């Protein structure tokens, strides 16, 4: 089969790789039908994630068809159409027993495309399949469903729930990439009074408006003052950091009101300054987190019922063999306007190419 292989910082290729095989009785082999690219994959390609060894197939999000299962797999069988979660869960360790699957100590957590071969291939081996793949409702399109493998549960759990969004809140989202846009969509489920979005790209701010943002601003347009003006000088109840650079993190801590929450979702590759000299007196709660995906079954039901606008985040669709082109489009989002890029495998379904 073919897969997209990391060969070290700045080097990768769509090339022949060995077919995956069952290694443990809890494994499943899935034929990939739709897969997407994550900002974390770009971090890996830059060499920012040293745990990823050269020779690893990238990717941690997919929809596909189960073709083989180990003897101990009980929840899916060959022929089932499934979502492959970005998080693998053993189900037995102390963290899994309380639903903190992202911190699994039994061979799970974020392993696909990180510590083991991932989903950007024609087939993928999924360890601990009973808790790591989810049967899909028949009405849910694959290129929409694949967004629930990572960005929607990440935005919802690490952003909205950790930030404790409540009815009537002012919510600020810094970063209108795919996760930030998913945070807008899931925050709206809690009826905030207003959502303010900050981003550098006018196209992403326009997308944010389309998904329900009440006010938008570029960093140079004074987002701190905008939030202050909208809240009688108090600041936002919840600020969601969805970029992962020091400047945006520090902006979030300046926008939050006393007693508010800063929910950090962005993946940081450099230290950020925590200004405790300003924050210590403000009763601010700061949360971080890797997604656990405990919300995925609920989000799948919401998507099947048309309550999550997943399809509106997909801007480009390619066949699987055009993986390198898809990476180029996604990495060049400032020029291409890409939000989520989805690749569909011809063996599973035919999808439009370059659909906007």
TrEMBL record:
Its cofactor is Zn(2+). Residues 8-343 form the Enoyl reductase (ER) domain. SMART domains: PKS_ER (SM00829). Keywords: Metal-binding, Oxidoreductase, Zinc. InterPro entries: ADH-like_C (IPR013149), ADH-like_N (IPR013154), ADH_Zn_CS (IPR002328), ER (IPR020843), GroES-like_sf (IPR011032), NAD(P)-bd_dom_sf (IPR036291). The keyword Zinc applies. GO terms for molecular function: oxidoreductase activity; zinc ion binding. Pfam families: ADH_N, ADH_zinc_N. It comes from the Bacteria. Belongs to the zinc-containing alcohol dehydrogenase family. This is Zinc-containing dehydrogenase. The lineage of its organism: Bacteria, Bacillati, Actinomycetota, Actinomycetes, Kitasatosporales.
């Amino acid at each position: 089969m073919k897969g997209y292989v990391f060969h070290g910082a700045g080097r990768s290729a769509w090339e022949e790789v060995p077919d995956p095989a069952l290694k443990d009785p809890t494994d499943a082999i899935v034929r990939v039908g739709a897969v997407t690219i994550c900002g974390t994959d770009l971090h890996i390609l830059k060499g920012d994630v040293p745990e990823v060894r050269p020779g690893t197939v990238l990717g941690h999000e997919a929809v596909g068809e189960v073709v083989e299962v180990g003897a101990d797999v009980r929840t899916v069988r060959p022929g089932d159409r499934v979502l492959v979660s970005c998080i693998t869960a053993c189900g037995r360790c102390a963290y899994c027993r309380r639903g903190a699957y992202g911190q699994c100590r039994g061979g799970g957590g974020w392993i696909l495309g990180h510590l083991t071969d991932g989903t950007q291939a024609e087939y993928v081996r999924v360890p601990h399949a009973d808790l790591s793949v989810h049967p899909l409702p028949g009405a849910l399109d694959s290129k929409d469903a694949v967004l629930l493998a990572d960005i929607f549960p990440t935005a919802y759990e690490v952003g909205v729930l950790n930030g404790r969004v409540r009815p009537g809140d002012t919510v600020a989202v810094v970063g209108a990439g795919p996760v930030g846009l998913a945070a807008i969509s899931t925050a709206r489920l809690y009826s905030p009074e207003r959502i303010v979005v900050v981003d550098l790209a006018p196209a992403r701010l326009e997308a944010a408006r389309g998904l329900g943002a009440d006010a938008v601003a570029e960093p140079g347009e004074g987002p701190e003052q905008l939030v202050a003006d909208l809240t009688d000088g108090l600041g936002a109840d919840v600020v969601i950091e969805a970029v992962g650079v020091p400047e945006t993190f520090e902006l979030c801590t300046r926008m939050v009101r006393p007693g508010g929450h800063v929910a950090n979702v962005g993946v940081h590759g450099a230290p950020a300054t925590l200004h405790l000299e300003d924050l210590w007196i403000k009763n601010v709660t700061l949360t971080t987190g890797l997604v656990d995906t405990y919300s995925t079954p609920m989000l799948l039901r919401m998507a099947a019922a048309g309550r999550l606008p997943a399809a509106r985040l997909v801007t480009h669709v390619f066949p699987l063999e055009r993986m390198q082109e898809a990476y180029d489009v996604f990495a060049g989002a400032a020029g291409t306007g890409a939000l989520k890029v989805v690749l569909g495998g011809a063996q599973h379904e035919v999808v439009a190419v370059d659909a906007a």
